Amino acid sequence: MHLLDYLEQYFYREDQVCQLLGITHDQLEHWQHLCIFPQPSYSLENKIQCHSVQGIFDCQVFWQYYPIACVEWGKQLDKANITSASVAFNLFAQRAQQALKILIDQELYIDESYVEDLEEHLTHLWQQYLSGQFGTQTKQGQIEEIIQMDAIKYSLDTLTEGFSLTSLDTTQRKKVHPLLKVFSKAIIDPPSHEYSHSYRAKYLDKLVMKYDLSLKK
Predict the structure, then answer these.
(1) According to the 3-state scheme, what is the secondary structure of 142-184?
(2) Strand partners, 44
(3) Which of 8, 62, 117, 160 has the most CB atoms in a 10 Å sphere around its CB?
(4) How sure is the predictor about 33, in pLDDT bands with cuts at 50, 70 and 90?
């Protein structure tokens, strides 16, 4: 898929984000200055030549793209009138904790040490969230997807001892298969030029191939 087609299908341009939230560009920048709203995941700068009945002229375009879930996050900020980074982080943490509880309630294997160090994980994830990083890693940039990706990757690393195990026994495989399915749904299907650098290629595909796993099982 062409990059522009990919971005138009799975992301919102900055002007679309502002329109959907009913805010100005200055308000969006203010939220980012307060560290309560993510930076864009993609920034495109391009010089193009325009042909029209008026003639031919060169121009420069600059577009910024945000993951779809940023609009939902912005609506939460606006509804609760949140202007504090600490309050925004608490909202982020609450949703992440709820998402983690759902994973545990589904009896998925989540390593105990991840839960014990959850506050540290959330602090780190919050900084990554604000940087716009998760727009290039998760399907829609949802907080629930972020915690699924992070908690499951941590747990898979524990089960495989960081890919150092040569094989998995039956018990380990029974734990791994359900995790793979959720992990695959949470992470993005990147465009071809980014695939080799993505979690899907560098982690999921590698895991499936090394241990002869299948997402269909």
Answers:
(1) CHHHHHHHHHHHHHHHHHHCCCCCCCCCHHHHHHHHHHHHHHH
(2) 63
(3) 160
(4) very high
